[in-house]
């Protein structure tokens, strides 16, 4: 990134800002401001989004009965919004009126068709007519004395009656009182039918607006561009004279020529320099097509600071291997492959689909190496050499060994070593070479300890020159390093660790602070390394659960002299158990296979590379041309 300081004349500031927005290169230091124009545009944008959501909802509800064409749909944003306001105002008014009519009908229907014309004549002569309802049992027990009561209906334990009284104040009785109806059921039904026709017309009109959604989305984009322009304009810092305005920003170094060409054609003064240590420099990740698939994983936690290395290329290979090792089943990998291929051809989800392809192939490969196919042995279906299934569990002389467990520890060791290399590189980039020497010393100590442990079969753990993981001669490779080289690595490593930690202190004090840091390093390293056992544990749990579903499914089938009868009608039940069981296991295992490598990346790996994070994403001041 390069830093640019712009000095704009008052008369040219709008033109230059419009040009910069069209260019879409510079990430301006924009303040969060709220002017009347911005608030007005934000309100319009919110209303457009709400109306678009309602249009899609009504269109998808299939309530429209006919397709109509709107010939007078406006082009201006304000006119479009006013049109939508009017259409939905009519729709909401009709909806309220319909709800009111339906409520009145629901209230009036139990009373039946009342002769309102005759009742109104009686009311005009001073007769009070009051409608009541209540419990039939309570009604029969209540003493109405000399009140003039007429029962209209009795049903389901409810009585409805009317009270006639010549007194202006109606008597108080403990029953539900109803307002005197203003319209008959017939009148309400006629109005209901009329409103339903009007509502249908309104729904048809709103559904027809679905064809104008692209134009409405364009309106939202215009509003977004207007908002960003106003924010940039209000972020200009005026000089005391008021004639010159100042603003800073950042741009990618590879766009230098394009930006200079623009600036040289405008009346603007500028200064381009390297970003300072105190600058909040935006981060733009640059990776190849494969590594770019893993960038969303990086963004789940945080972008790196501008002064840090991008960890994505470093953790992507490990994440892929870890995912495959956790799921580790050829059958599950093949199932994942199908949706991954489908998503790969959908533009919106292509990156997710391509990441799914990578993880699916990793799962299939791990399944072959672990000899697993839907929880059964892969070699039961395909004839392959045992050297290929090198990491599968093996039982020799009654003892079962799990090469996948030691493989998990080996991968953890390699990732931690890589992490310290990255930490050293980060310190060089951030603070200078002297700050990288401690992590380099840590790396040498770990390396020397591993080699020395192999030479002396530390604690008789079997980690010696004959130690193998599958068919990989790990012990022979490690012990090929001479012991003399180990001692040299120890000497250099301890010197770097104890004399180049806490560089803010003097030389004599650093070894003392190094003792505490060394204790933290040893305990932390062992804890981090053991965390990688979860890769093996999750893969083992997934395989055992898959195998359990297989046993349950085939257990119910009848057997004749040890031969399973697959022609039995119970095979249908077995198939259902297999489908449901493996679907559940795949869902849980796939989730765990994503989460656990994620945790190893964000906790163990990020801790050992000294990841700070908190980077700000590169967001250039530009016009939005698509959704």
Q: Would you give an account of this structure?
A:
This protein has 627 residues and is of the alpha+beta class. The chain has three domains: 2-95 and 201-273, no CATH class; 115-180; 289-608, no CATH class. 56% of the residues lie in helices and 11% in strands. It contains 20 helices and 15 strands. The protein has helices at 13-23, 36-60, 77-108, 116-124, 136-141, 185-208, 213-234, 256-264, 289-292, 295-301, 312-327, 330-344, 350-370, 403-430, 437-455, 474-479, 483-499, 510-531, 533-555, 571-608; strands at 2-9, 27-28, 128-135, 148-155, 158-165, 176-178, 237-238, 244-251, 268-273, 282-283, 394-396, 399-401, 559-560, 563-564, 616-617. Strands 1, 2, 7, 8 and 9 form a five-stranded antiparallel beta sheet that branches. Strand 11 (394-396) and strand 12 form a beta hairpin. The longest helix has 38 residues, at 571-608. The protein is extended, with a radius of gyration of 38 Å.
Layout: helices, strands, pairs:
Elements lengths: L1 E8 L3 H11 L3 E2 L7 H25 L16 H32 L7 H9 L3 E8 H6 L6 E8 L2 E8 L10 E3 L6 H24 L4 H22 L2 E2 L5 E8 L4 H9 L3 E6 L8 E2 L5 H4 L2 H7 L10 H16 L2 H15 L5 H21 L23 E3 L2 E3 L1 H28 L6 H19 L18 H6 L3 H17 L10 H22 L1 H23 L3 E2 L2 E2 L6 H38 L7 E2 L10
Parallel strand pairs: 10-15
Antiparallel strand pairs: 1-8, 1-9, 2-8, 3-5, 3-6, 4-5, 7-8, 11-12, 13-14
Helix pairs in contact: 1-7, 2-3, 2-6, 2-7, 3-6, 11-13, 11-14, 11-19, 11-20, 12-13, 14-15, 14-18, 14-19, 14-20, 15-17, 19-20
């Amino acid at each position: 990134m390069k830093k640019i300081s712009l000095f704009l004349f008052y008369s040219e500031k709008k033109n230059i800002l419009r040009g910069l927005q069209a260019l879409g290169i510079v990430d301006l230091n924009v303040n969060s401001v709220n002017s009347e124009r911005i608030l007005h545009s934000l309100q319009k944008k919110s209303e457009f989004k709400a109306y678009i959501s309602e249009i899609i909802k009504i269109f998808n509800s299939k309530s429209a009965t006919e397709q109509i064409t709107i010939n007078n749909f406006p082009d201006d944003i304000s006119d479009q919004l006013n049109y939508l306001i009017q259409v939905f105002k009519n729709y909401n008014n009709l909806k309220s009126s319909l709800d009111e009519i339906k409520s009145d009908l629901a209230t009036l229907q139990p009373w039946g068709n009342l002769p309102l014309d005759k009742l109104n004549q009686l009311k005009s002569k001073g007769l009070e007519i009051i409608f009541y309802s209540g419990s039939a049992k309570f009604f029969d027990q209540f003493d109405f004395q000399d009140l003039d009561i007429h029962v209209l209906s009795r049903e389901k334990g409810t009585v409805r009656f009317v009270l006639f009284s010549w007194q202006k104040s109606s008597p108080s009785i403990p029953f539900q009182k109803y307002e005197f109806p203003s319209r008959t059921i017939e009148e309400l039904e006629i109005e209901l039918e009329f409103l339903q026709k009007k509502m249908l017309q309104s729904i048809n009109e709103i559904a027809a607006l679905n064809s104008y959604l692209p134009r409405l989305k364009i309106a939202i984009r215009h509003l977004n561009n207007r908002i960003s322009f106003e924010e940039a304009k209000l972020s200009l810092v005026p000089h005391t004279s008021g004639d010159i305005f100042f603003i800073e920003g950042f741009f990618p170094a590879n766009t230098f020529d394009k930006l200079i060409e623009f600036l040289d054609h405008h009346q603007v003064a500028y200064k381009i320099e390297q970003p300072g240590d105190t600058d909040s420099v935006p981060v733009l990740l640059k990776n190849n097509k494969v590594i770019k698939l893993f960038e969303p994983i990086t963004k789940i936690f945080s972008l790196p600071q501008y002064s840090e290395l991008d960890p994505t290329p470093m953790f992507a290979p490990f994440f892929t291997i870890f995912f495959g090792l956790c799921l580790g089943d050829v059958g599950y990998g093949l199932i994942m492959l199908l949706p991954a291929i489908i998503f790969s051809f959908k533009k919106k989800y292509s990156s997710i689909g391509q990441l799914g392809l990578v993880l699916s192939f990793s799962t299939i490969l791990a399944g072959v190496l672990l000899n697993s196919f839907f929880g059964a042995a892969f070699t039961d279906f395909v004839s392959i050499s045992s050297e290929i299934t090198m990491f599968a569990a093996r039982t020799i002389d009654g003892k079962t060994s799990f090469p996948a467990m030691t493989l998990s520890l080996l991968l953890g060791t390699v990732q931690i070593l890589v992490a310290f290399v990255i930490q050293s590189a980060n310190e060089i980039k951030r603070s200078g070479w002297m700050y990288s020497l401690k992590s380099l010393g840590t790396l040498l100590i770990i390396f020397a300890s591993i080699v020395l442990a192999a030479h002396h079969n530390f604690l008789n753990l079997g980690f010696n020159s004959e130690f193998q993981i599958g068919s990989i001669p790990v012990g022979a490779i490690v012990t090929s390093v001479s012991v003399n080289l180990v001692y040299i690595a120890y000497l250099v490593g301890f010197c770097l660790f104890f004399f180049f930690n806490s560089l803010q202190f003097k030389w004599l004090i650093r070894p003392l602070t190094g003792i505490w840091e060394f204790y933290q390093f040893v305990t932390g390293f062992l804890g981090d390394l053991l965390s990688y056992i979860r890769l093996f544990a999750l893969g083992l749990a997934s395989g055992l659960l898959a195998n359990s579903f297989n046993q349950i499914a085939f257990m119910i089938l009848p057997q004749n002299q040890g031969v399973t009868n697959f022609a039995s009608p119970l095979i249908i039940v077995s198939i259902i158990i297999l489908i449901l069981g493996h679907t559940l296991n795949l869902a849980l295992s796939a989730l765990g296979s994503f989460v656990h490598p994620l945790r190893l990346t964000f906790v163990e790996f990020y801790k050992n590379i000294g990841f700070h994070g908190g980077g700000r994403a590169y967001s250039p001041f530009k016009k939005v041309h698509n959704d």
